[in-house]
Amino acid sequence: MATMTGEGFLIRNARLVTPRGVEEGDCLVREGRIAALGRFDPPRGVPALDAEGRYLAPAFLDLHVHGGGGADFSDGDPDGARAVVEFHRRHGTGSLLAAIVPAPPDRMRKAMAAALNVPGVVGIHLEGPFLNPARCGALDPAWFLPPSRAAFRELASGFEGEVKVVTLAPELPGALELVAEVRRIGAVPALGHSSAGYGEAVEGFRQGVGHVVHLGNAMTGLGHRDPGAVGAALLSPASLELVLDGVHVHPAFARLVIEFLRGRGELRRLCLVSDATAAGMPEGTYGLGGREVRLRGEEARLPDGTLAGSCLTLDRAVGNALRFAGLSLPQAVALASANPARVLGLEGVGTLAVGAKAPFVLLGPDLQVEALLPGGGSPLDHPAHPGKIGP
Ligand SMILES: [Zn+2]
User: Fold this and answer.
1) pTM above 0.90, yes or no
2) Separation of 29 CA from ligand 1 center, angstroms?
């Protein structure tokens, strides 16, 4: 596998999931970027992999990951942080934001430091602590703080440039000043765990809130006399997260959102996220930021029944986007790659085009993840894998 991590490699006979559609062809990667794509004369002496008709797509980028594979970023354990990233890599996620839940500030800072040491973690999503206790969901309101620029500066000190998304409740006193401070350090203020009504949410977007965390969850819903934060979010220019596991939002709600955005030519605003906590674990009882989470089937809940993150991974979320809303494969893949990359202002990431950056994901006919390229520890290392590697 060392050959695939080196200076360059060639993937032959792939179905290339490009922004224009699915095309058959090859992909040459040099120095971590696509050097040629489609039909071209392959250079000699470059290690090659025969994809045998598998899909080649940009690797997924998840803006909202708490944990997976039995570990949780918020614990601040370096080995645990590595385990989370490794777990999501197996499901096609090449880069992610480590989502840190409200806790004592020194614990949150320790968790940020541990996560940022792991390759693949491209930043921090602070899911709090400036949230509305009335919409705490599974987060522990004991550690929520009233919005305060000083408290935020202290929390983020030394992590400026690494903190990418800050979830806050824009209706709280002082929140709009906090929005300005979050933007000042280059992060995206996001609406979430908020009781904001329609008008308060509209004002938040006007003042610079640029993103919405798990649309529909832990916020005011869409009513015909009170369009709530969901209505304001849809009509705003903000990017929107959707936890598309069929549990967090009804598949018909997902369809409404997707068809609305598609009709406006704004699908690029939508980002699939996992909000994963207990992903990849057998049924049982686990911890999330010190709280007890029970995993039954596909649902992670607190003992009182409140949803506590998900068991979702982005490979399944992409499949659900195809099923629930009839998107094409390139459209569904963009929701988990190009769109979140745009939220982070990353250029040439999350797309299949000449000049675009690795990593990439190889998907089987049912969209099962077969490899993340380049990289060690991918399923391509497995001797049973039918892919052929060699010059
Ligand atoms: Zn979350």
Assistant:
1) yes
2) 34
